[in-house]
Amino acid sequence: MSEALTYLIKARPEAMQAYFKFLKDAGSRLDPKTRNLISVITKVHSQTENGLRQYLTRALREGATAEEIIDALLMAFPALGLARIVWAADVILKMDLPEFRLDAPPAEPAWHDVAAFAALADGKATRLDCDGRGLFVWRKGRTVKVYDSRCPHQATNIPHLALKGERLTCPKHEWAFDITTGACIAKGSTPLKRWESRVEGGRLQAYW
Ligand code: FES
Asked: What does pTM read for this prediction?
């Protein structure tokens, strides 16, 4: 939260609580994808980089495609103007999200070949790259869980060094996750994005 907002909450707590309640109520009838797309536009309007990173991550998580996000920004051109849209594109490029790469495969979800199941260490998590996406794969016996390596807070690509036993800690703002469940166990509340997975012919596959 910005210093200015923190100040306003302390200076006028009743008014600010009513304001936040109004915002929550106003968004409660919108589906999560639409709500997050609108938040993306407001963060671009105020040129709040951390906010843009956060709501862009949420919009993608709620099923928005890169094309939809770009179209939402372009539709908001009368309010944003070209300079803010270019600023947003710069932030998005810095985030280096697989969904926004120009050579990214079509957005249609598909099964991806990840690794030989037998090669995955038992009782441990492994960091892998597959078709342009970073993954953490946790295996215990026949149970496997595949997570996106992007942090659910602001999409930082979490490196393998962030893994200590069963605890994965994002280096950016230290949200921590239990790699056996994907649950966020410190600082934040959103779990890791988990991809559906299966083992076919001895190969681990994941669906995104
Ligand atoms: S990006 Fe903020 S904790 Fe990961």
From this structure: 0.81
